[in-house]
Design a protein that fits this description.
Length: 106
C-alpha cells in the first residue's frame, strides 16, 4: 500500500513514516515509479516502534533494536529501572506536598 494508506492503517502520519524510514527503522518497498510500498509486516513494525516511542524510549535505542542488537532488552530494563526510581521520587514529593497541605489547611 502507498504511504497515505499506510498512515491511515497504522495510525501514524505520513511524515512519521518518512522519519522512521530516514532513521533506518523501517525499509518500505518501492514501486517502479519510486512510490513507497508498505506491506503488512512493515506496518506491524511501525506499531511496535510507535509503542516503544510512546513508552519513552529514544529513537537511538529503538534503532539498536531494529539493528538486532542483543543488549536491547538490557537497555530497556535499565530504562525501566530509571523510570521506576523517578516515579518513586515523585511519589515522595507528592506525599511531602500532601503533608504540607494538611498542615496549612484552615
Amino acid at each position: 500500500m502507498r504511504i497515505g494508506e499506510a498512515a491511515r492503517a497504522s495510525g501514524v502520519s505520513a511524515r512519521s513514516l518518512r522519519f522512521y524510514e530516514d532513521e533506518g527503522l523501517i525499509v518500505p518497498g518501492r514501486h517502479e515509479n519510486g512510490y513507497r510500498d508498505y506491506c503488512r509486516s512493515t506496518l506491524d513494525r511501525v506499531l511496535v516502534i510507535r509503542s516503544l516511542l510512546e513508552s519513552g524510549l529514544s529513537v537511538r535505542l529503538i534503532k539498536s533494536f531494529a539493528d538486532g542488537a542483543p543488549e536491547f532488552a538490557e537497555e530497556v530494563r535499565r530504562y525501566r529501572d530509571r523510570l521506576a526510581a523517578r516515579i518513586a521520587a515523585l511519589n515522595e514529593q507528592q506525599a511531602a506536598l500532601d503533608a504540607f497541605l494538611r498542615e496549612v489547611r484552615p
